[in-house]
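Q: How do we represent a protein-ligand complex in a form that can be generated token by token?
A: Start from the inputs.
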Amino acid sequence: MADGTTARIVHWAGNQPYPGGSGDYAPVTNPATGEVTGEVALADARDAQHVIAAATAAFPAWRDSSLARRTTILFRFRELLNERKDELAAIITAEHGKVLSDALGEVTRGLEVVEFACGIPHLLKGGFSENASTSVDVSSIRQPLGVVAVISPFNFPAMVPMWFFPVAIAAGNTVVLKPSEKDPSAALWLARLWAEAGLPDGVFNVLQGDRAAVDELLVHPDVKAVSFVGSTPVARHVYATATAAGKRVQALGGAKNHAVVLPDADLDHAADSMVNAGFGSAGERCMAISAVVAVGAIGDDLVARIADRARTVRTGDGTRGTDMGPLVTRAHRDKVRAYVDQAERDGAKIVVDGRQVRPEGEPDGFWLGPTLLDRVRTGMSCYTDEIFGPVLSVLRVDTYDEALALVNANPYGNGTAIFTGDGGAARRFQNEVEVGMVGINVPIPVPVAYHSFGGWKNSLFGDTHAHGTEGVHFFTRAKVVTSRWPVTSQGSVDLGFPRNI
Ligand code: NAD
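Then emit the structure tokens for the protein with nicotinamide-adenine-dinucleotide bound:
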């Protein structure tokens, strides 16, 4: 405890807490009450160097530890996490604000990646060609990179780090996780769990902080790869800086996800999906639907069905059985509310207005209820910008082709969905849409762990997506070995280029 009432949230290096020396701290709040519940250490470059040094020292031994040992620890971590996931969910709700069931869902999706990483012996098998040339064999192997940095956003304090670190660690790398300074406690909890699972000192480390911490990770020579998730402007900065410093980088950015609803769709299913995908986690999901594209004459009917459902959503403290929690900070809530004010001035129709929502008994929480905007046009800021709040905009078009053109013209390409009863139209959409993850009658098409997660265009900078086989490739590099073991002495000199004989 720092002052008897708030927790001091520090770094983690070499399997123990590390206070750091910067002397800088930022407040951490409970968004449902507005109370400051902790203060998180903000690393300076020296603190970052200390944590990176712990990861660097641990790499040689971890890289050489057997696959059997690594998977034993991973299985133990999986069992511990599964047993105690409620504890982690409570930490997420207390700092992020999402309702407990949603926090538990986040942990469960992260667990999937741990389970995927438990299969690392199979994923690292490599290839072997006997007699590629006479008595010459060729094998392809994949080796770990060294220290890798994972830099994560506020909206999934457990799941997004878990998209990366189970695979990175299983592949033999050591990790420095830099969580969001808005909800930093989940990362520390996970670090303690790794220690309990028997992970050697320094394999998993946590560096708390903001831009200063990130900037040191991007240029430090011992950091070999960076997995970043956050807003598009920061993703661009991370990608440009770390690739210029010679690192391998995957930088996942922001999103504007469209759901196209065709006239033949089941409108009740579509309306349920819009409400779940638009207002779940208060719209603070990179795969949230924020733009509904109603095709043809269904617009009024669809808007009415979404509005009816949106009005039933109970907003309030996520520990009290509500449907939707607060936004993460007061500043973020005010920013989202300002987008609604601007949309109204721009001529959008406010069908459901969340600005007046005040859950009883929690006057200081960062509240904004579900908000439905109709007659939105593509030039309005509520459409051009990623709002990242519980605001659903409805745009109306006449044809499928107009809907497709609208989605493809958007600079983001994270997720999208189509709602239709027509298999041919759905197939055309999956083929033609320029977006990385597509749902067909599925509003939030987050891939399972053995497939890979990632968007296109301004939603991802880099070549490789997260987890699945792409994740294994990202955290390993290829080596090809050509070998000959002569049974008799060759004794001859040949300066020619090797040929296949
Ligand atoms: P953010 O970009 O503000 O922060 C992300 C991380 O970068 C944090 O750890 C933060 O401390 C750090 N950071 C912030 N500003 C920085 C700067 N100027 N220089 C260096 N580092 C900096 O994002 P956020 O608000 O925490 O998260 C929300 C954003 O993340 C949304 O845009 C959302 O779409 C995106 N997101 C994307 C995905 C995806 O898969 N594409 C997933 C989750 C979230």
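Residues 326 and 366 are 5 Å apart (CA to CA). The longest strand covers residues 136-144.
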